[in-house]
Structure formats: C-alpha cells, structure tokens
Amino acid sequence: MVNNHTHQSHPNIIKRLKRANGHLVSVIGMIEGGKPCLELAQQLHAVEKAIQQAKRVLVQDHIEHCLDDAIGALEPDQQRRVDEFKAIARYL
User: Fold this and answer.
1) Nearest to 24 by CA among 45, 53, 52, 10
2) From CA 64, how far away is CA 41, in angstroms rounded?
3) Tens digit of pLDDT for each residue in 16-41?
4) Which residues contact 11 (CB under 8 A, 6 or more apart)?
5) Torsion sign (Cα): 4, 7, 12, 16
C-alpha cells in the first residue's frame, strides 16, 4: 500500500536537494583535483546548509499540515496552544 504524502513544499525541497547534490558532486571533483582544504571545507559547509534547510522546510511543512489533520477541530484555547507550538518549532 502506497501512502502518498505529497505537500506543496515538496517541489521546493526537491529543487534544494538537487542543487545540494550537484554541489556535492562538484566537491568530490574538487577533492579528486587536489583543491585546497579551505576551499573544500567552504563548499562542504554550503552543501550541509542546503541539506539542513531542505530538512527544515520538510519538518515545518509536516508540522503545519499533518498536525492539523491529526488532531482535527479544537477549542480556541487548544488551537492557540497548537499555534504556539507551530510557531516555536520554526526555531528548531
């Protein structure tokens, strides 16, 4: 059974990951080409940041959409607490 878990943010995430993948391939080429370690570290840092951002978008999107679907309608006070949770999760 396939569970289709597609969200509006997924195309953006795919784009970010493809960019990170291309960058990583370039870094591998740089290593093979004997580039200086400082350049390699800078480029690896960029790849790492791109992957972190893709993960952040994925997790935040999941929290925004799936949490509401899972818990359903709430009383105003409960909804306020859920909204606060969503807001604070953006800082992770």
Assistant:
1) 45
2) 34
3) 999 999 999 999 999 999 999 999 99
4) none
5) negative
